[in-house]
Amino acid sequence: MKSFVIITLALYLSLSLALVHECDHKGDEEIDVYTPEDIHLLSEGTFTPAPIRFTFDDNEIQNLSDQNLKNLLLKSIKTAQLFYEDLIIVKKPHQSDIVITDKQCNYHDFSHYPQQSNSDFHVYIQIYQLSSNTIASAQACQLNEGLDFRPELAVINLNAQYIKSLEDNYYNFQMISKIVIHELFHAIANSPGLYSRYNNIQGYSNNALKFPNILKWVRDHYGCEDLSEFPLESNGGQGSKGSHWPRDFLNNDINTASFLLGNMVWSGINNALILDSGWYDIKDYENKNDPINWGLKRGCDFLITGKCNSQFPEFCTNQDQTDTFIYSGIGTCSSNKKDLDVFATCPYIFLYSNMECQNPSNNNNKYNAQLFQDFNVVFGSTSSAFQSNMQPKNTQDLSKETVLCYPNKCNEEKTKINISFDRYTLTCEQDGQVLYPPKESNFKGSLTCPIIKDFCQKQVQCEDFCSSNGYCIDGKCHCIEGVTGDKCECSENKDLNQPSCKRVQIQNCNIYDEKGNCIKCFSSYKLKDNQCFVLNVFKSKLTFSLLLIVIMLSLIF
Ligand SMILES: [Zn+2]
Ligand SMILES: [Zn+2]
């Protein structure tokens, strides 16, 4: 019986590739090649730089019968649009309509759509249904011939079948909007067809970039002054290599070639590329990015392809299981399984989907339910992985510390971490400090604090992922129109359906779901009908430990 449990769990934990998004940018080279003679077409007029104006033709989304899917897609696009409007200034905005001359763009026929007014960039959204891991793709088409040859038309493809299969929650909303941001980035600046048309700058050859702002950023980031160029991704298929940052060098940047579990970030290199195009300026260049620690100040050695020195904490060896670099969960070293990540030459910790701390769906996962109920492990936007074996006093499950997820928050100075554990707050004030549950609690075991400064620098996620009502950058929410609040949780017309605006405090409730229902009471209380009741008899001893089984996985691999 017990071996049966181990096998099913092992199968389950065998890595879900479902959330991996690979890019598919076939036909990127459809943009016509301009000869030097075309230069005289460049307009000499005067322009007033202004925030980029996107227009979207979302007819195919409007026609979807599934209302949830429709709302999810429309809001993701709105959020991505806001992201770029807040970020990009167009140097030469359109003063007249975009006249659509490229009638065939990415299999979409624009013959019945001659022009678009009040726009710097028009995007047609194409919906398709495909049973694969490709979530989206993008292609820029027509360039702005009369102005500065920047792209002004694109088609974005969204795989409705795949997106529909995702649970409808804040976490997945954030992922979809980040994917739309990724695709739009290909259309406005990030593709081989565009690099060679950047204004007046030669900086693209042999699958590497040497544009001035890119060089400045990478030299500073890696601490490698001698760097003369930065390579693009060289692994993967046609749609992936040559138009993304290399996985080995910028692991979790949003513009690498696939979406990983954990927090994908918009690092400063993306703003550098936008500037290098010459078509745009960036509003608030220094602040509009997420910190990225991958390769930070590791020196030139870090950038030697294939060196993969496991002395760098970014990389792992086959035995490693826990993500001690970004503190986002339990995983396996990518070298343990073939083709886990085709873009990685250097092995890194690849998270198990049900062991990723930030995904709230993992609380309901049937294999995690015991962790959630008995061990006070909580998966959610503010949770991170800690070395711990805190457990109920009447169990013998965890003799040694393993990795468990708890909600936490660093102080402003990044010198302390407050960790929520049941009704208690445990505070890390020193690196490696060992914390214990309070004596009066029903818990025993310990938690070992991480290196606090390092840990706190990596916590860039927004609480509740901005409630699916905005985007998160550098730990702050920016809300779409009509929504306010630190977490974009309140609608401006005081719509009482917004959870945190009306949240009813349920006595002795520890964790609420997105709708404001109690999903977990404090220990020694029992949840029934959205209320917490005193538990009279404390539960009998647990019969087996899921955690020990998780740890045993290394043997199975
Ligand atoms: Zn893509
Ligand atoms: Zn891409």
UniProtKB/TrEMBL annotation:
Q: Which residues bind Zn(2+)?
A: 182, 186, 244
Leader sequence range is 1-18
What GO biological process term is on the record, naming one? proteolysis
Keyword Iron-sulfur set for record: no
Domain of life of the organism encoding this protein: Eukaryota
Cofactor binding description: Binds 1 zinc ion per subunit.
InterPro entries on file = Peptidase_M8
Keyword entries, A-Z: Hydrolase, Metal-binding, Metalloprotease, Protease, Signal, Zinc
* Active-site residues, as the UniProt record annotates them: 183
Gene3D superfamilies tied to this protein: 3.10.170.20, Leishmanolysin , domain 2
What is any one of the record's Gene Ontology cellular component terms? cytoplasm
- Molecular function GO labels: metal ion binding; metalloendopeptidase activity
Cofactor section: Zn(2+)
Family of this protein: Belongs to the peptidase M8 family.
Q: What is this protein called?
A: Leishmanolysin family protein
